[in-house]
Amino acid sequence: MRLPIAYVDIRFLAHATEDVGKVKQAVHNLFQADQVEKVAFNEVVLKGHYGNSIILFETRIKNEEITGHFVEMLVAELSELDKEKILRETNAFIDGSNLYLRLDKQAALLEEVRLHQADPIYIRIRFRNKDTDNTEIAKDIGLLP
């Protein structure tokens, strides 16, 4: 089944106080092992408030196989409580053709997937259908109960 997903954007930060390798590993844990090498992140070094370096990693994934496996992983790994939170607070997560998620970096390092607001892995899932109720599409996919 072809998912109605145009692409997935992923962004995350590695602060000077963090081990960049562990932060990257946390994000790599969200992908199937054979797909990690196919996902390339752009890196931009930024300066923090006190002059400390922060590395911004970002990518846009358009490959249907990778986006399909990524969304399937989210469906399988997000807890029912997190899915219910997304449904209850739909306006905070779904805006037009986009579903926005913020995932816990620490949990991802431990191969767990859960929503988290502070210093997260930012996910934007862009739906193909612009004139459709994307809440219903998210339900059909299994991202919402």
Could you explain the architecture of this structure?
The chain is an alpha+beta fold and 145 residues long. It has one domain (5-141): 50s Ribosomal Protein L5, Chain: A (2-Layer Sandwich), CATH 3.30.1440. Helix content is 34%, strand content 28%. It contains 6 helices and 6 strands; from the N terminus they run βαββαααββαβα. The protein has a 6-stranded antiparallel beta sheet. It starts with a strand and ends with a helix. The mean pLDDT is 94.
The radius of gyration computed from the alpha-carbon positions, rounded to a whole number of angstroms, is 15 Å
Proportion in β-strands: 25-35%
Instruction: Assign the CATH class.
Output: Alpha Beta
If you consult CATH, what is the topology? 50s Ribosomal Protein L5, Chain: A
Structural class: alpha+beta
H/E element sequence: EHEEHHHEEHEH
Distance between the termini: 20 Å
